[in-house]
Amino acid sequence: MASAADSNFTFASLPHPAPVPSDTRDQALANPGFGTLFSDHMVMIEWDAGIGWHDGRIGPREPIALDPATAVLHYAQEIFEGLKAYRLSDGSMALFRPEENARRFNRSAERLAMPEMPEDMFINACLELVKADKDWFPSVEGGSLYLRPFMFASEPFLGVRPAKQYKFLVIASPAGNYFKSGAPAVSIWVSSDYTRAAPGGTGAAKCGGNYAASLVPQAEAIERGHDQVVFLDAAEHKWIEELGGMNLFFVMDDGTIITPPLGGTILPGITRNSIITLAQEEGLTVREERYSLDQWRDDANSGKLVETFACGTAAVVTAVGRVASHDGEFTIGSGGPGQLTTKLREKLVGIQRGTVEDTHGWVKHID
Ligand SMILES: *Cc1c(COP(=O)(O)O)cnc(C)c1O
């Protein structure tokens, strides 16, 4: 019986009848890709009105049978998180700021009228899964075990109201590099026909519905030969918000960095927050303020803007080299990753991997 170390909540450990054979697993782990390979186990916890969280267990990863009337299939009451487990340079395992994921998960839950989960229960669910699947770390450079905690309305009910039953799960996917090409800088398409989030909407929540709404503009970006889509604000179609799943930073030639302010329409990225701290430590001034598409183009053309990068857990820090919209294209700096982008990326990855000192207590070691 596996039990959570510092919580009263315990996870039953169900035996796995047929884990993936080690030679098949190791072969897959040599080229994991992103999001297509999964580990042997999963965590599942139930929530029922009147009972609360119960029946926590870790067992074989397997399909879940759902009644066709299950609420999430109709009204998309679903939220998720994404965090990585790393192997440190000394071979031990760690999570990066998982308490921030736990907090954000609860803020998303609140917005979607779902039950909140004690932070230590969320973190312990992640820890239990990593321990059970410790042999699933990819052997490739930059590899990690990507964890996907999520919760959905599991009550069979077609009325529109918050469900009275939910399932929380954590699955794990060994991950290599997020961008297929492993490209040094990405090209992005400015969506002017679609927006990601509006004031008062769900833009700050990590809910599946936000992603469903971003698929058409993302497909448009790909069709036009770009890697990602960047969204503008819903009210004026003028201010840069973020990519479909990453926050943006603009680096000026005077050592100032600008990033769009949080305020309900931008997802509060944990990577974003970490980068702000690291940039300030480098002596840079970080301004959380609105930055328009027109300004971005002008500053890139005049040379005032020297770098732009996107950041998020999956791809960590990625340089933006080229920007295209209905009004034409512009290149940022040399079109490749700039100095500061590279420096901040190396510092953050170094902390995550244990080669740079963790002065902020961001790394949670798994024993
Ligand atoms: C998850 C996500 C991010 C990045 O958040 P991290 O905590 O840094 O991984 C940025 N934008 C959107 C829309 C997201 O869903």
Automatic annotation (TrEMBL):
Pfam families per UniProt: Aminotran_4 (PF01063)
Protein purpose: Acts on leucine, isoleucine and valine.
UniProt keyword terms in alphabetical order: Amino-acid biosynthesis, Aminotransferase, Branched-chain amino acid biosynthesis, Pyridoxal phosphate, Transferase
EC identifiers of the protein: 2.6.1.42
UniProt pathway: Amino-acid biosynthesis; L-leucine biosynthesis; L-leucine from 3-methyl-2-oxobutanoate: step 4/4; Amino-acid biosynthesis; L-isoleucine biosynthesis; L-isoleucine from 2-oxobutanoate: step 4/4; Amino-acid biosynthesis; L-valine biosynthesis; L-valine from pyruvate: step 4/4
Catalytic activities: L-valine + 2-oxoglutarate = 3-methyl-2-oxobutanoate + L-glutamate; L-leucine + 2-oxoglutarate = 4-methyl-2-oxopentanoate + L-glutamate; L-isoleucine + 2-oxoglutarate = (S)-3-methyl-2-oxopentanoate + L-glutamate
Modified residues (N6-(pyridoxal phosphate)lysine): 206
Region ranges (Disordered): 1-26
PROSITE patterns: AA_TRANSFER_CLASS_4
Cleaved signal peptide residues: none
GO molecular function: branched-chain-amino-acid transaminase activity
Family as reported in the entry's similarity comment: Belongs to the class-IV pyridoxal-phosphate-dependent aminotransferase family.
Keyword Membrane belongs to the record: no
Compositionally biased intervals (Polar residues): 1-11
Classification via CDD domains: BCAT_beta_family
Name of the protein this chain belongs to: Branched-chain-amino-acid aminotransferase
GO biological process: isoleucine biosynthetic process; L-leucine biosynthetic process; L-valine biosynthetic process
InterPro entries associated with the record: Aminotrans_IV, Aminotrans_IV_CS, Aminotransferase-like, B_amino_transII, BCAT-like_C, BCAT-like_N, BCAT_family
NCBIfam families tied to this protein: ilvE_II, PRK13357.1
Cofactors, names only: pyridoxal 5'-phosphate
